[in-house]
Amino acid sequence: MSTIWSVDEHLDDILSAVRPLEPIELQLPDAQGCVLVEDVVVEVALPPFDNSSMDGYAVRIADVEGASEEFPAVLTVIGDVAAGDGGLADGRAVGPGEAARIMTGAPLPAGAEAVVPVEWTDGGTGEGPATTMRAHSDAPEGASGEVRVHRAAEPRAHVRAKGSDVKPGDLALRAGSIVGPPQIGLLAAIGRSTVKVRPRPRVVVLSTGSELAQPGEELTAGRIYDSNSFALTAAARDAGAIAYRVPAVADDAETLRATIEDQLIRADIVVTTGGVSVGAYDVVKEALSSVGDEDGAGGGVDFRKLAMQPGKPQGFGSIGPDHTPLLALPGNPVSSYVSFELFVRPAIMTLMGLEDVHRPKVRAALDTDKALTSPAGKRQFLRGTYDGEKGTVTPVGGAGSHLIAALAQADALIVLPEDVTSAEPGAETEVILLR
């Protein structure tokens, strides 16, 4: 009698064999979605100098004290400071009774203590309050002459202080962080062009079965469209991997073996669906017995039965000279997707070097009209929709492993443990969140 594995035993076996990928140095755009393997310490202050947060005039506090529209402070404009400038021309400083036109992001010139927005002034026109600053190319004379300031300013008003975001020596990002768009922005802002990360795993997904046709083809008698390879390729990408989908392979051991061997060059992990049960045409077991293993060093794939529903038949092992991990999943659409969530996704995230490789789990009350039944001794995973506000989960579809329409509506898996054969309405149960 063959051994029945539990869900936890199978997952532990997978995660104990899968190792994080070796770190590499990548340019920032290529590091998106990867996991940092080292702390990133700030070397350059951000911002690197005191700069203006407004378009306006750099002034001394004493010169605008008590200013109002009725009694404006009249200052001499001594020049422009634009973003990218080092300051006023010839290194001049703002002296008593003077001001400098300054643009957002431009360095605060020497002598200035605050910035007054252009809306607090006449913009150098000699008229009422300005609504905008005239472009230097249209009115170069705006960098000289006089400006009337209608409001007083507090010290450092509208000035972004040097190092107010991060200072040299600060920890910018911790090892283990996923490099997303905000992280890339921070890294670029502090001058980092490359980072050391674990690369995104390359996942090859292929379905098996002579009955499978590609979407867009005409269906002939006895055939169905291949949905598994599309769903699991998308799921692998959603988990952070670079995923390659291989068109369905017919039920021929030699063809399947050759196809997998061809894919090993671009695979950190291989996922197959179908052909793992006990039928006369379930050729995955036969094909995987010697894939890429001419020297006998390629490991092997163990096919086993799990105490779960759906997804009883499973396979796991390593193939080829590099001992590439392979997970063989059942062919029914719901079985393959549930198996991916439980076993393949954690393996992908382990390859990435993440510590938390599991989907979030919550407890929720069953929102159903009748009791849910589950076979004794098996852990059942039912599709459901979770309502976080109410703390409830509602089953969708039936228990059949072919019911893919219900899977498309679900955002959670309802878990009924091995010792539960009936779950009444309102019963609290474990829920795995899929989104």
Describe the protein's architecture and organization:
- 17% of the residues lie in helices and 29% in strands.
- It is built from eight helices and 29 strands.
- The strands form eight sheets. A seven-stranded mixed sheet has the order 1-19-21-22-18-14-17, sandwiched between helices.
- α4 (228-238) runs parallel beside α7 (333-352).
- The two termini are 39 Å apart.
- 41% of the residues are buried.
- The model has no long low-confidence stretch (mean pLDDT 90).
Side-by-side strand order of the widest sheet: 1-19-21-22-18-14-17
Low-confidence stretches: none
Portion in helices:
10-25%
Q: How many H/I helices?
A: 8
Beta strand %:
25-35%
Shape: elongated
Summary of the model, kept short:
The protein is α/β, with parallel strands linked by helices.
Secondary structure layout plus pairing:
Blueprint lengths: L3 E2 L1 H11 L6 E4 L7 E2 L3 E2 L9 E2 L3 E4 L1 H4 L8 E9 L16 E5 L11 E4 L28 E4 L9 E2 L10 E3 L7 H9 L4 E5 L3 E7 L3 E2 L10 E2 L2 H11 L3 E8 L3 H11 L5 E5 L10 H4 L12 E7 L1 E2 L3 E7 L4 E6 L3 H20 L8 E6 L5 E2 L5 E9 L4 E4 L8 H6 L2 E5 L5 E2 L4 E6 L2
Parallel strand pairs: 1-19, 7-8, 14-17, 14-18, 15-16, 18-22, 20-25, 23-26
Antiparallel strand pairs: 2-13, 3-13, 4-12, 5-11, 6-8, 6-9, 7-10, 19-21, 21-22, 23-29, 24-28, 25-26, 25-27, 27-29
Helix pairs in contact: 1-7, 4-7
